[in-house]
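README: folding subset

This subset contains proteins for which both the sequence and a predicted structure token string are available. Records are stored as plain text. Below is the entry for ribose-phosphate diphosphokinase (313 residues), shown exactly as it appears on disk.
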Amino acid sequence: MAIHKLKIFSCRGSRYVAEKIAANFGVDLGDSQVLEFSDGEFQPAFDESIRGCTVFIVQSTFPPADNLMELLLMIDAAHRASAHRVIAVMPYFGWARQDRKDRPRVSIGAKLVANLLRAAGVDRIMTMDLHADQIQGFFDIPVDHLYASGIFVPYIKNLNIENLSIAAPDMGGAKRANAYSQHLNAPMIICHKQREKANVVGKITAIGEVKDRNIIIMDDMIDTAGTITKAADMFMELGASSVRAAVTHPVLSGPAYDRINNSALSEVIVTDTIPLKKDEDTSKFTVLTVADIFADVIERVHDYREISSKFIF
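--- output ---
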């Protein structure tokens, strides 16, 4: 099977992690630019030939929506420049919480984004820790769904924490927490929460043994940090020895930073799928890079080799 030349490019929102992926892979990041118009319109362009190449475009689609639009335009430009294949590397897949109609007269945003990416001409998607696994089924093209467990598990093991327990911040996260608890041979705690409205948590209770345990709350994303900080404070009130959180995508909107810094959380372990804000106090955060995992899987996909061995769970 002929192997086409590989090139890695980045949109503006994820250049910080794309540079690390390219360096880990052993290549330079491809040259591209974005022409901006005074009305806010913009036009991405490749500054080198990509004819016949397998092109990987790195971009997480966290807010603003311009990040998604720029990715769509880059994919379209790559096809019009006669790329052999175009693969979107989306460490964070935005709109993933809109995976179903949970109330009347709302959109299914994740499906719409999948349709937009396919219409732009993408041949494959590579992402990490989707908010809902079923989003893979929204695509009629291959989706490489990677897991941050390959980063978190070694880090947690190196902490050598005694009396470790793994907690799910809500019932929806129980499957993820259970996988970590089995792999780390630690008991699991489940939080049951009642929302007053979107992004506002009302009452929260714990199911499982909390007293004298060192707890790590596992989740796929932190948005406003309301759930995780309330859970951490509750655990400490119930007699926990310490509470940490390990979360893949640090969305961290609104009062999230202040809530975390004022909470009982001793450490928040995140990945660099989304950059932390430079003007905020990040002293409680530990950032682990996803570059190694993505670089390895990019190489395997390009060489038509299996990637299942890269999954811990």
